[in-house]
Each structure stands twice: as structure tokens, then as C-alpha cells.
Write a structure and sequence with these properties.
single chain; mainly alpha; Hydantoin permease; 25 helices; 0% strand
């Protein structure tokens, strides 16, 4: 390793004036300015502390009903007391045990023309590999008390990380849009011709808004139990209509190009959780072993995704073979196939469709939550704006975007999943290498007193340059409708692999030089 555990944890020396600024909040907890000055002033190194005496009456009422008070401020160790580590499993397990993975699985057989066997093996292998990155990154939340994108400042810097914030917010919002579209399609099939996909989208987004508004604690409570009805209705759907899934389209054996191209989509599906995973663990007690929390997060993402992605692939392989399925798919997408599968049970099938449509509420809820946090990080003054304001803004943005994307949803999904894997490869590689190589898993080196102090955080130049150099490798490996690189013509899409391993390779010497130049982490 490049640095000893002792040096990784060393906090840069500061003069007395700087220390005074960093600890002003601790010395004068009741002193604050009013009006616009209060809104625009964010103390250096301020951490989360309940400040009920500063709240207006209406805001305090929101807090009383369970709305989370803290936004992006670091959570000190004395506030990290949650020992229910298994809810790190349920928050992801429930969020993904829904109909969202189905359309992504369907792309394997409808677009990439893989057989069900080849699609299943590709899903299994890439899922097992790509889930490890977000599971590891999620461990940083309970160890540091920092939101995921606040941790990113300790490698990407206070200012350059803004690029990552925008990309991450767009990615998570994109997943929410896909979930809302599939839900809207499913609701529309309940009463075709009378209920539109647009109405379904609005219903599910507004329901998810309420869940996301309440925040961390309520999200964990909801996700602890919603998996049960989701599992029941998914089981019923497969039990009733699964007999048709044995009828699969005839396709040639898969080529390496097909496997790698669809594997790139799998990477886009899984590794992007690295941008949000820590947001759900920052209140957990840091004393738990790393392997325990890693396992909970890993299984929470992997366990529901793989079977549902494979189910989606099976549904896609039957679309062109089973009578009536192709027409249903063209009219209502994944929701149309679910409706046809449930036709034999009549009115009860419509009830099941309702529950299936609402199954994505947990998923959209855990997506809107970190997006609101990302927006809060964009401008320093936003730190003092209540989180729920940003949740409301995200909701207002998602509704028209979801409606627009639903008009060409399959193309939107394919392009979206392909592109996000590239930037997430850059990001995850930097974050993992920073924690393992340069900080040697010394989580105390993520010093709370500098979380919003640009001159003491890394510049971010090493991370940015490493990503840009890696981009030079990624472009030749891209295989998309709008561009096919020279490497990809032979290998298929290897953009994600080149992004991840290329960035890791370039970041190592660049970050070492940055540390030598500045004299500290």
C-alpha cells in the first residue's frame, strides 16, 4: 500500500483561526443570524445536530410526523446508533422486488436476441460481479457518517464533484422514470381505453413522493414490509401465466459481442447503486464488521434482481411466439404482458395488476430520496434549505419526463442503461481505490471538519484527469445505435470494463502526485 494507516488518518494542520471557524457551531450552538444571511451562511465543518429551537411552527409539525430533519450534514458517531443492520438488506431487497427489473431483462431477448439460456447466464455472471462495487461503497456510510456524494468530495473535490452530482441525479431519476412508466403501463391495462398510461404515471409518482418526503426512518420501515405483498403478486403472476414462458423464440447461439453488449447494460443497472448506497446506512452504528454490512447490501441488491431479470428475459423471449403477446407488448409494454398472463383469473387478475403497479413505490421512494440530497449539495446555500423542498422539485420534474419517455420507452431504456454504465465505471473506480489504496480503509481519514471546505479537500483534478484519460479508451469500445467504436466492432460493447479498469489504472499515479504536491490526503 502507498500510505500507512497512520498517515492516512492524519488531519491537515490548521491555524487557530481556521479551527475557530470550523468549531464555531460547537462553541455557540444557539447563535445564528436571521433572514437571508442565515440562509446563505453554512459554517465550515458543521455537523448534524437537532435544532428544534430554530424551526418555524409549520416545519416542526412536519418533523413531528416523521419527516427527516437532517439533509447532507455529516452524522457524528454519537448519532449513529441504529443496530438494525438487516434493514440495509430490506431497503434494497424491497426496492428491487418489483416490476422494474422486468423490462431490463426483456431487452436481452427482444433487442439483443439472446436465447433464454444465454441471457440467464449473462445476467447471473454480470450481476454477481457488478453488485460488489455498490455493496462495498455502501459500507462507507455507516463507517464515516457521510452521504455517498459527500464522501465523493474526498476524492473528487468540492467543486469538480458537481459534475458527478448532476450525472448521479440524472441516473437515479432515470431509473425512477423507468419504474413509473412500467407502473403506468400496468395501471392502464386494468381498464384499457379509459385509463391512460399518463394517469398511471402520475398516481405512482405522487404516492412515491409521500414516502420519499418522510425520509430515512420511514423509508426503512416501509421497505421492511412491502416486499411481502410484492412477492405474493409476482408469484401469482408466474403461477397463472408462467406456462407460456416455455415457448421461446428460436435464435442462433450468442456471440461474444451480444453477451458483452448486454453485459454492459447489466453493469449500468447494478453499479450505479454506488452513487446512493451510503445514503441508507449513515445512521447505523459503525462498530459492525465491514463484511456484515457488505453482505446485507450485496444480497439486498442481488437476490431480487437476478430472478426478476431472468423472468423478464423469459417474457421477452415469448413475445413473438405466444398468441396475443406481441400486440399486448406493443400497446402497453411490460404491463401489457403482465395483463395477458393474468387474464385467466379475471377480476382477481386486475386486483393483482394494481398491486404489481404499486410495487414500484418503494423503488421510486428510495430513488427520489438521494436525488433530493444531490440537489442539496449543488450550491453551499442549499445546505440550509429543507430536504423536502428538493423532493417536491424532483417530483415536479419526474412527471413530465416520465410521460415524454413513455412514448418511446424501449428505446429510452436501452440508451439510458447503456450510457450510465460508462460514467458509473469512472466514479466507482475512483471511490473504491481512494478508500482501499490511499486511505487503507481508515474511515477516520474522512474528516468531518473539512466536508465543505474546498481548500482542504482534494482538488479533484486527479479523479477528473483519470476519467478523461480513460474516456479515450472507452469511446473505441462503445457499441450503440448512434456510434460503434473500432474495438466494439469486434468485441461488442466493452465501454464499462474500459471505464472502470482504465480509470483505476490512471488514478493511481495521478492521486499519488496530488498528495505529494499538497502534502496531505
Amino acid at each position: 500500500m502507498l500510505f500507512s494507516r497512520k498517515s492516512a488518518g492524519t488531519v491537515p494542520d490548521t491555524d487557530d483561526g481556521e479551527k475557530d471557524g470550523c468549531h464555531e457551531q460547537e462553541r455557540h450552538p444557539n447563535r445564528h443570524t436571521n433572514g437571508l444571511v442565515s440562509l446563505l451562511t453554512v459554517e465550515d465543518g458543521v455537523v448534524y445536530k437537532p435544532e428544534a429551537q430554530e424551526h418555524t411552527r409549520w416545519y416542526q409539525r412536519l418533523l413531528d410526523v416523521g419527516v427527516e430533519e437532517n439533509g447532507i450534514k455529516p452524522v457524528p458517531v454519537e448519532k449513529r446508533t441504529n443496530t438494525q443492520y438487516n434493514n440495509l438488506f430490506t431497503v434494497f431487497f424491497t426496492g428491487l422486488l418489483c416490476i422494474l427489473p422486468l423490462p431490463t431483462g426483456m431487452l436481452a431477448t427482444t433487442v439483443f436476441q439472446l436465447s433464454l439460456r444465454d441471457a440467464s447466464l449473462t445476467i447471473l455472471f454480470f450481476s454477481a460481479f457488478c453488485t460488489a462495487a455498490p455493496a462495498f461503497m455502501g459500507c462507507g456510510g455507516y463507517k464515516t457518517g457521510l452521504r455517498q456524494m459527500i464522501q465523493a468530495r474526498y476524492s473528487w473535490g468540492l467543486y469538480i464533484v458537481t459534475i458527478i452530482l448532476v450525472l448521479n441525479a440524472a441516473t437515479v431519476t432515470g431509473f425512477s422514470i423507468v419504474a413509473a412508466i412500467v407502473s403506468g403501463q400496468t395501471i392502464a391495462t386494468i381498464n384499457p381505453g379509459n385509463v391512460s398510461v399518463t394517469v398511471g404515471i402520475v398516481i405512482v409518482i405522487l404516492a412515491s413522493f409521500v414516502l420519499s418526503l418522510l425520509g430515512y426512518r420511514v423509508l426503512h420501515i416501509w421497505e421492511r414490509w412491502q416486499w411481502l405483498p410484492n412477492l405474493v403478486v409476482l408469484t401469482i403472476t408466474v403461477g397463472v401465466g408462467g406456462k407460456h414462458l416455455v415457448h421461446q423464440q428460436e435464435v442462433p447461439p450468442a456471440t461474444a459481442s451480444q453477451v458483452l453488449s448486454y453485459g454492459g447494460l447489466m453493469a449500468g443497472y447494478f453499479i450505479t447503486f454506488g452513487g446512493t448506497a451510503s445514503d441508507f446506512s449513515i445512521y447505523h452504528d459503525p462498530k459492525a464488521p465491514l463484511r456484515k454490512v457488505f453482505t446485507y447490501i450485496y444480497l439486498g441488491i442481488f437476490t431480487p434482481s437476478v430472478p426478476l431479470l431472468i423472468l423478464g428475459a423469459a417474457m421477452g423471449g415469448s413475445v413473438s411466439v405466444v398468441a396475443g403477446w406481441e400486440e399486448a407488448y406493443e400497446s402497453y409494454g411490460t404491463g401489457g404482458i403482465l395483463a395477458v398472463m393474468l387474464q385467466p383469473v379475471g377480476g382477481f387478475g386486475k386486483f393483482v395488476l394494481v398491486i404489481l403497479a404499486l410495487s414500484v413505490i418503494g423503488n421510486i421512494g428510495i430513488s427520489m430520496y438521494p436525488v433530493a440530497l444531490n440537489l442539496q449539495m449543488l450550491v453551499p446555500a442549499f445546505t440550509k434549505v429543507p430536504r423536502f423542498i428538493f423532493t417536491l422539485a424532483v417530483t415536479a420534474l419526474m412527471i413530465p419526463l416520465s410521460i415524454a419517455a413513455s412514448r418511446a420507452w424501449e428505446e429510452s431504456l436501452e440508451n439510458f442503461l447503456a450510457v450510465i454504465g460508462y460514467w458509473a465505471g469512472f466514479f466507482d473506480a475512483v471511490m473504491i481505490e481512494e478508500a482501499v489504496v490511499f486511505r487503507r480503509l481508515n474511515w477516520e481519514s474522512y474528516d468531518h471538519s473539512i466536508w465543505n471546505v474546498g481548500r482542504k479537500l482534494p482538488s479533484g483534478i486527479a479523479a477528473l484527469v483519470a476519467s478523461l484519460l480513460s474516456l479515450g479508451l472507452v469511446i473505441p469500445g462503445i457499441n450503440e445505435v448512434w456510434f460503434v467504436g473500432p474495438f466494439a466492432k469486434t468485441t461488442g460493447d466493452i465501454g464499462f470494463e474500459l471505464a472502470f479498469f482504465g480509470t483505476a489504472l490512471f488514478y493511481l499515479p495521478l492521486r499519488w502526485l496530488e498528495i505529494k504536491w499538497r502534502g496531505h490526503l
